[in-house]
């Protein structure tokens, strides 16, 4: 067996989720190779070479991969991946974008968002917004898999000393191009890796009111998330959405403020260690999953909480 | 220009799903079924493009059981001109669906294929990307804005870090995210009219594709239940519990 792990990065630094993908790769077994594709991504390859348990790093440094366009990366992964029994990527918007493309080019199924490795062919994955957990077995000779980062504790970022091999595979399909991006700038911890997450829902009323959550979050070193309703209403940007179709988080502490607790929201946070809900409606379904519920008006409770910490 | 909109019949998103006692799957008997919400957004986007005069024909297609005719009728009530059902009772999976869709694309030659980014049953998020790969088309996944002009489509995508905009040559595949649009409801007259719109039925054999699943479901379990928690009486009590009982702050 041999596993190819696709590294998630921004051309400058490795994204921590890759450490979780390597953890899943270790459970599958066999040699682990990390593929770093990007532009000017040499530092990322050096970082990947230090990951515990990695035996080789392939670095494809080319203009075509600068923005992770799925058409180009999909072709690259299908070609490089031909030599491996398993191809793993993080279930991020990058992995979800190119991995099915690579799988189809290799004529194999993809197994999406695994949460557990049973053996080299068998995996667990959530379905129906996490309301059921399926154990699935692939009959394909080669497996293309995306990995739910929060389900695997990342391996150590240091300790390995793999060789970096530059590969000169330029795949430019020439059918798509990058126009621009608007990336959220925040000094707060990234949602999917934060120890504490505080999320606001429709109950926040407007975007300005999120200030009370930001203030509390900064005191606790927390990341700030939101429900779909809060994003749809324009209170906060889409990258803050937690849920079935947003981000999956599993922090030590999740505080849901003015969120009712729809199943699609719970799908993104119910694996949190401790859940706190602040909601003025005692019937709100969020209280059914909360370890500590506070029935109160958030505009009083949140500032009071802030003052008492 | 022609748009193909593949749609899926799934359990209604409001239904609380239950795992069958024998762990063979999820109980679908007597459960309300509906069009996958992301597919509704795909149909709506196609209809809006037609209303803007960009699109001339909308073809809805579904790969699934005979009952998926209901969802195709809904798509036609919302504005699709005609539809195709590739009828199968197989446990269809994204790769098989993508192959069937490729065969339809080869016949219909659409300029744009708009699909939901994921179906809320399997949560796979694969079909659009696979179809794009098999047809050699570019893809704009998780779209929150679609702009067709001058033989290209500009797609704004919801990504983990924020928003990304890409430009794709046509024909292209677009998969919809939640904020692309808010789907309309079908009006009664349109529901009546949809009954007379053409619905073609085919089989996988007609298309020459193999829908045999590559992944088998060994078992399905209910997720671990969370222990019931407590309601605290005050902010002070909450702080005390978080510090001394849960020890998370
Ligand atoms: C296909 C699909 C995918 C979806 N994906 C997601 C997803 O990824 N993430 C997600 O979150 N949702 C998702 N949803 C939407 C989901 O179904 C709910 O509509 C949404 O989560 C509701 O958000 P909310 O709890 O903020 O709003 P509401 O349900 O309106 O709840 C607001 C809550 O705030 C409380 N409140 C109001 N004012 C105050 C106050 N002053 N003090 C205290 N409490 C107050 C109310 O009591 C209420 O419980 C999805 C839906 C569909 C159909």
Question: What is the secondary structure topology, with strand pairs?
Answer:
The complex is a heterodimer of chains A (309) and B (249).
Chain A: E1 2-6, H1 17-28, E2 31-38, H2 42-49, E3 56-61, H3 70-80, E4 86-90, H4 93-105, E5 110-114, E6 116-117, E7 122-127, E8 132-138, E9 143-147, E10 163-166, E11 176-183, E12 196-200, H5 211-220, E13 223-226, H6 228-232, E14 253-257, H7 263-266, E15 274-279, E16 292-295, H8 298-307
Parallel strand pairs in A: 1-2, 1-4, 2-3, 3-10, 4-9, 5-9, 12-13, 12-14, 14-15, 15-16
Antiparallel strand pairs in A: 6-7, 7-8
Chain B: E1 2-6, E2 9-11, E3 33-35, H1 37-51, E4 57-64, H2 69-78, E5 82-87, H3 94-108, E6 112-116, H4 127-135, E7 139-149, E8 152-159, E9 162-169, E10 172-176, H5 188-194, E11 199-203, H6 204-207, E12 215-221, E13 230-232, H7 235-245
Parallel strand pairs in B: 1-4, 1-6, 4-5, 5-11, 6-10, 7-10
Antiparallel strand pairs in B: 2-3, 7-8, 8-9
Flavin-adenine dinucleotide (FAD) sits between chains A (201-203, 227-230, 241-246, 258-260, 262, 264-265, 268, 279-281, 284, 297-299) and B (13, 37, 120).
């Amino acid at each position: 067996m041999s596993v190819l792990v696709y590294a998630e990065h921004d051309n400058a630094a490795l994204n921590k989720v890759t450490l979780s993908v390597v953890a899943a790769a270790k459970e599958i077994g066999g040699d682990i190779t990390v593929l770093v594709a990007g532009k000017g991504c040499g530092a990322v390859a050096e970082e990947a070479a230090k990951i515990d348990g990695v035996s080789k790093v392939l670095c494809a440094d080319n203009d075509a991969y600068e923005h992770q366009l799925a058409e180009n990366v999909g072709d690259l992964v299908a070609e490089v991946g031909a030599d491996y029994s398993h191809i793993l990527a993080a279930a991020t918007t990058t992995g979800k974008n190119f991995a099915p493309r690579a799988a189809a080019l290799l004529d194999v199924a993809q197994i999406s968002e695994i949460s557990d490795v049973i053996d080299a062919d068998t995996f667990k994955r959530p379905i129906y917004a996490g309301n059921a957990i399926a154990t699935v077995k692939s009959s394909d000779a080669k497996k293309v898999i995306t990995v739910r980062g929060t389900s695997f504790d990342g391996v150590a970022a240091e300790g390995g000393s793999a060789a970096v091999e530059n590969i000169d595979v330029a795949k430019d399909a020439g059918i798509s191009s990058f126009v621009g991006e608007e990336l959220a700038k925040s000094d707060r911890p990234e949602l999917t890796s934060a120890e504490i997450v505080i999320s606001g829902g429709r109950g926040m009323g407007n975007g300005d009111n999120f200030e009370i959550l930001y203030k509390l979050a900064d005191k606790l070193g927390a990341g700030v998330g939101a429900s779909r309703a809060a994003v749809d209403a324009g209170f906060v940007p889409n990258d803050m959405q937690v849920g079935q179709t947003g981000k999956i988080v599993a922090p030590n502490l999740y505080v849901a403020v003015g969120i009712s607790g729809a199943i699609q929201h719970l799908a993104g946070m119910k694996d949190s260690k401790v859940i706190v809900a602040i909601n003025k409606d005692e019937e709100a379904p969020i209280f059914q999953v909360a370890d500590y519920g506070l029935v109160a008006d958030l505009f009083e409770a949140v500032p009071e909480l802030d003052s008492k910490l | 220009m022609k748009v193909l909109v593949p749609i899926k019949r799934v359990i209604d998103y409001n239904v609380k799903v239950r795992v069958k006692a024998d762990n063979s799957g999820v109980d679908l008997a007597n459960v309300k079924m509906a069009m996958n919400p992301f597919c509704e957004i795909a149909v709506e986007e196609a209809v809006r493009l037609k209303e803007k005069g960009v699109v001339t024909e909308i073809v809805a297609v579904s790969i699934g059981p005979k009952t998926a005719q209901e969802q195709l009728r809904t798509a036609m009530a919302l504005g699709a001109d005609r539809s195709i059902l590739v009828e199968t009772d197989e446990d269809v999976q994204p790769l098989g669906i993508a192959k069937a869709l490729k065969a339809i694309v080869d016949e219909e030659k659409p300029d744009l294929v708009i699909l939901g980014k994921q179906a809320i049953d399997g949560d796979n998020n694969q079909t659009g990307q696979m179809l794009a790969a098999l047809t050699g088309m570019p893809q704009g996944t998780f779209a929150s804005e679609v702009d067709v002009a001058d033989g290209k489509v500009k797609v704004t995508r919801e990504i983990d870090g924020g928003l990304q905009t890409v430009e794709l040559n046509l024909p292209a595949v677009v998969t919809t995210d939640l904020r692309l649009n808010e789907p309309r409801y079908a009006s009664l007259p349109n529901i009546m009219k949809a009954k007379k719109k053409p619905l073609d039925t085919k089989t996988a054999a007609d298309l020459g594709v193999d829908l045999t699943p590559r992944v088998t479901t060994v078992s399905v379990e209910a997720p671990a239940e969370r222990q019931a928690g407590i309601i605290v009486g005050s902010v002070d009590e909450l702080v005390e519990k978080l510090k001394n009982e849960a020890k998370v702050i």
